[in-house]
Amino acid sequence: MRKWNFSAGPAAIPESVLEETQSELLEWKNSGMSIMEMSHRSPEYMQVASTARQDLIDLLGIPKNYQVLFLQGGATLQFSMIPMNFALQHQADYLLTGSWSKKALAEASKVATANIVASSETANFNHVPDADSWNESSDAAYFHYVANETIQGNALHQAPITQSPLIADMSSVILSEPIDVSQFSMIYAGAQKNIGPAGLTICIIKDEFLATASESLPEMLQYAKHAESESMLNTPPTFSWYLAGKVFSWLKENGGLEAIAKVNHAKATSLYEFIDASDFYSNPVIHENRSIMNVPFLLRDSDMDAQFLNDAQQAGLLNLKGHRSIGGMRASIYNATPLAAIEALTQFMREFELKHG
Ligand SMILES: Cc1ncc(COP(=O)(O)O)c(C=O)c1O
Description:
35% of the residues lie in helices and 16% in strands. The chain has 357 residues and is an alpha/beta fold. The chain has 2 domains: 229 residues, 3-Layer(aba) Sandwich (Aspartate Aminotransferase, domain 2), CATH 3.40.640; 101 residues, Aspartate Aminotransferase, domain 1. The strands form 4 sheets. A 7-stranded mixed beta sheet has the order 2-10-9-8-5-3-4. Helix 4 links the parallel strand 3 and strand 4. Helix 2 crosses helix 7 and helix 8 packs parallel to helix 10. It is globular, with a radius of gyration of 21 Å. The structure holds pyridoxal-5'-phosphate (PLP). The site of pyridoxal-5'-phosphate has 11 residues, from helix 3.
């Protein structure tokens, strides 16, 4: 039996998408084979791939002067590819708001001069430093930030205005609400939260910015080569791409990003309101930077964490353990997690508090 899955990633996928995939798994549309067994260069697969790409373009309103790439290597490979393509032996600016931006900075530092614009590390990343305090370089190749820090559960809800081209890691927030892509030179995201299964990474890059990329890198590391070959420089992750396409169709059928944003805000508000009204649970992130996708919370008495997680699992609420680096709990409530899951969670939390509070 399927249960409520609060995993941070790989994360819940809409049930109707899984059912449709199941119905097509052995044979895709009278082709005599599974989509997994099909050449990526076959006309059938090319159609699946280009429909998925177009649906993503429609959902996010991606302007024509952007490349939309379907790559592999996870968001983590982007931590290296970005500085290699755009800042090899140059300067780049990094805003430090949590574990993922720290990792991005560490990789960039190996090939570029990576400047820390501001950091909230001394406050355990419980907020995003105010833009007034940012110390931007005058000649940075780009400004990198993580729009939603999956582990700490903080977010910058508006794209910042920066002196250099803006790059956002949107792995855990993409497709959760409308954004204005034209404010960014590059957006990237690992798929395994709001897009589909792991193994796929989406990169959205402005042509003008792409034109500044290094041409001396091995082909597989050059965004321009991936763009020229329409993400088929080598065999792409065909099954993940196909399934991502189904998630995009599901989003479109359900009213697109405006509609899902309403649901996401209702879900997050109801969970934060519940936590804030209790003395038993707490969330450390300052209000204006609270993530709508990842909600970490602590129990008043951390000795009860194991019991909480065990009882939650018994109640059909899975994967609520906080990241190993910070402990406590975390509910990841991506697009495929419905309001009913939040209701089940808050109901359980209420009962747990009554019993142990
Ligand atoms: C914000 C963010 N960036 C990067 C990553 C790393 O992604 P991947 O595992 O796809 O390399 C994650 C993974 O959870 C993430 O949440």
